[in-house]
Amino acid sequence: MTRYARQEVLPEIGPEGQARLAQAHMLVVGAGGLGCPALQYLVGAGAGRITIVDPDTVSRSNLHRQILFTEKQLGALKARATVQVLTQLNSDCELQAVTHPLTPDNVDELLQGVDVVLDCADSFAVSYILSDAALAAEIPLISASALGVTGYVGGFCATAPSLRAVFPDLPANAANCATAGVMGPVVGTLGAIQAQMAMNVVLQLDPSPLGQMMQLDLQNFRATSFRFDSAPEPQTALRFVSPKDVIQSDFAIELRSEAETQTPFAPHAQRFTVAQFKAEQMTPDNTQRAVFTCKSGLRAWQAARHLQTYWPGEIALIAMGDTNTTQKKDVI
């Protein structure tokens, strides 16, 4: 009896479906609370090739939900530790660890030859960068997010609208798992659903998970689901770009304070605050492009939305992230 016998017996899979899984190339961005269960189920199911992108290291405060790791792996690069553990789970699966962040510079390269993308990152900037690139490349994107005891998971792009069509604006604050907390079983459940949706895409099951959204409330044990196949793409989208794309003529705005970074992201960048743009105190020339920069992208988004109310020009965003992670360039 083969290791896949219990799933090959399903009429939805069979030998043909198992062969599709074995030939699939999946990109998983994030090896944290969502990525750990998603990766375990995908590798266990016999996914042929998986590229895992995560610049972070294993930390003690994350072990309650990142159950792929142990205390012996504290300080290890997550992507590498994930490959080491999952290789022992299924040697049939080809695993690659990418230990530098996903950015506008490398997203298209990372998507080359990929059949389905799983967004398991705790970063809305990464989610929008992935969605924009996946939509352009017509690659299915399975994205999830969790906070506290609630979360959502959905199938975007390819034959479905993008993440922007469902979430055209960012939340009012930058709460994430580190600042607001999250329960392990919540992200575990959502990550498992991501794996199931990704497998359904590869197996071409009907109905497709693309265009489907599930919302979970695990305090009240409620689940809701709806389709968004006809959601329109936003007419104007604030897109994330690379710092390398900034030119001298750009109206470059550094929203991080000197306490956050003494050196602005560009030599000609000026320091302003979101409040100054809300008060309509700053206006670029009509010939310029405005480029807003902060750590996560949230302040950049907020300032850009204020500027859009009184200035019609082109606007781009940059999420600088943490400098200590952007220096890692290893790939194994």
- Spatial separation of the terminal alpha carbons: 33 Å
Structural class: alpha/beta
Q: Give the helix tally.
A: 12
Give a quick account of the main beta sheet: strands, pairing sense, barrel closure: 8 strands, mixed
Averaged pLDDT, please?
A: 92
Please write the string of helix (H) and strand (E) elements. HHEHEHEHEHEEHHHEEEEEHEHEH
Major beta sheet, strand line-up: 3-2-1-4-5-6-7-8
Explain what the structure shows.
It is built from twelve helices and 13 strands. It has helices at about 5-10, 15-25, 35-45, 80-90, 105-110, 125-135, 165, 175-180, 185-205, 275-280, 300-310, 325, and strands at about 25-30, 50-55, 95-100, 115-120, 140-145, 150-155, 210-215, 220-225, 240, 250-255, 270, 290-295, 315-320. The strands form two sheets. The protein has an eight-stranded mixed β-sheet with strand order 3-2-1-4-5-6-7-8, with helices on both faces. Strands 9-13-12-10-11 form a five-stranded parallel β-sheet. The longest helix has 20 residues, at about 185-205. The protein starts with a helix and ends in a 6-residue tail after the last helix. Residues about 325-330 have low confidence and may be disordered.
How are the secondary structure elements laid out?
Blueprint: H1 5-8, H2 14-23, E1 25-29, H3 35-45, E2 49-53, H4 78-89, E3 94-98, H5 107-110, E4 116-119, H6 124-137, E5 141-147, E6 150-156, H7 163-166, H8 177-180, H9 184-203, E7 212-217, E8 222-227, E9 239-240, E10 251-254, E11 270-271, H10 274-278, E12 290-294, H11 298-308, E13 315-319, H12 323-326
Parallel strand pairs: 1-2, 1-4, 2-3, 4-5, 9-13, 10-11, 10-12, 12-13
Antiparallel strand pairs: 5-6, 6-7, 7-8
